[in-house]
UniProtKB/TrEMBL annotation:
Protein species of origin: Branchiostoma floridae (Florida lancelet)
GO BP of this protein: DNA-templated transcription
Boundaries of every RNA polymerase Rpb1 domain copy: 13-233
Pfam families registered for this protein in UniProt: RNA_pol_Rpb1_1
Protein name per UniProt: DNA-directed RNA polymerase
EC number of this enzyme: 2.7.7.6
Length: 384
């Protein structure tokens, strides 16, 4: 397969998901520079030159300061190293997946590769694992529960074969303690296994003490054979899992969309709260219109804020007057010397003497009394 050329995109893109896993054999060959075929490290000479196509070949980088890499031509400090690959004739355990391999072997039957769970438990755990909203910690907890239940099962519910504990034994070695019995009643399978060594015991008595300790060795070939039979029993559920995966992806996309809308709504709420806070802290309020008594047929705008400070102990009047059936409120006014003038009765008599013509104080435009609402709107526009 030819490597795809990288082209930088000008547009920003969102990453849908990231997958982690092992590279395939073809990908390993593509990323490698040499094929390692020699088992020797150095040539049999006095100079100790690395063997070509060995694990110390200079095409994968140099290990000495006086030499350069034969692939990139850089020295020891600048060369990042290059890959080489080795063809394996037999499978081996990957050190990074060794613990997971043991967990899988503990959960399956070593004869038929079925999961060591009963019908009811299998259905319960299967329904739980199909939930699309399960978190990583919940799946990890379910995996631990399944492993604990499978380790307690001695006989497979499908084929009836005897299964024992699976443990790590030494460096990258796994044993299956199938024939280790701690019960008073020995299983016939264990008895048949021990009796198969009868002829060997007759020729060598020292073997008799080692027979109870004999266990089954699960080498990489045996483990690979067991794992290769597992997908056959999962084939029936493949379409169900794919449909659930699509549903989960749709739900995740919908969740991301809702989260974006929620973030936008929160930002809008914060802006409105800030605007409301600014409006509350403003010193000037919308003007209140009052009759201008010194000029006939005129109105003036008076703010709610005073230009002179209130004196301590002064009283305030919240008076409401009725003019031609309309209620006119004259905001809070202070009873000090500056506000003294005509009495309320005199102001009422002055209002009754007003004509039916109202005039804008700025542009002198006239309105009749029945159009006083239009006059107020005009004054708002005129003073803006």
């Amino acid at each position: 397969m030819v490597k795809e050329q990288f082209r930088e995109a000008d547009l920003a893109r969102r990453i849908s998901h990231v997958c982690f896993g092992m590279m395939s054999d073809e990908e390993m060959r593509q990323q490698s520079h040499i094929h390692v075929v020699s088992k020797n490290l150095y040539n049999q000479d006095s100079r100790q030159v690395p063997v070509p196509y060995g694990v110390l070949d200079n095409h994968m980088g140099t290990s000495t300061k006086d030499k350069s890499c034969e692939t990139c031509g850089k020295n020891l400090a600048d060369c990042v190293g290059h890959y080489g690959y080795v063809d394996l004739e037999l499978p081996v355990f990957h050190v990074g997946y060794f613990k997971s391999i043991i967990h899988v072997l503990q959960c399956i039957c070593k004869s038929c590769s079925r999961v060591l769970l009963g019908k009811d438990d299998r259905k319960t755990f299967s329904d739980t694992l199909r939930r699309p909203n399960l978190s990583y910690l919940q799946r990890k907890g379910l995996k631990k529960k399944i492993n604990e239940k499978c380790r307690k099962v001695s006989y497979c519910s499908h084929c009836g074969a005897l299964n024992g504990p699976v443990k790590k034994c030494g460096l990258l070695k796994i044993v299956h303690e199938r024939y280790k019995s701690t019960k008073k009643v020995v299983d016939p399978v264990v008895t048949d296994f021990q009796s198969s060594f009868q002829s060997a015991v007759e020729h060598n008595k020292e073997i008799e003490g080692l027979i109870p300790r004999a266990q089954e060795n699960l080498n990489p070939m045996v483990a690979l054979h067991m794992f290769s039979r597992i997908p056959h029993q999962l084939q029936a559920y493949k379409e169900d899992f794919e449909e659930e995966r699509r549903d989960r992806e749709r739900m995740q996309a919908r969740q991301e969309s809702v989260e974006e809308e929620l973030a936008t709504s929160k930002a809008t709420v914060r802006q409105l709260e800030a605007q409301l806070h600014r409006e509350k802290n403003q010193k000037q309020f919308p003007p209140v219109y009052h009759v201008q008594y010194d000029q006939q047929n005129a109105l003036r705008a008076r703010s709610a804020n005073r230009h002179t400070p209130y004196a301590v102990g002064n009283r305030f009047n919240y008076g409401f007057d009725v003019v031609d059936g309309d209620i006119v409120a004259d905001g809070p006014s202070e009873n000090n010397d500056e506000d003294k003038g005509e009495t309320r009765e005199e102001r009422r008599r002055s209002r009754r003497r007003e004509t039916d013509i109202l005039q804008c104080p700025k542009c002198k435009r006239e309105y009749t009394k029945d159009r006083h609402n239009e006059l107020l709107e005009h004054i708002d526009l005129c003073y803006d």
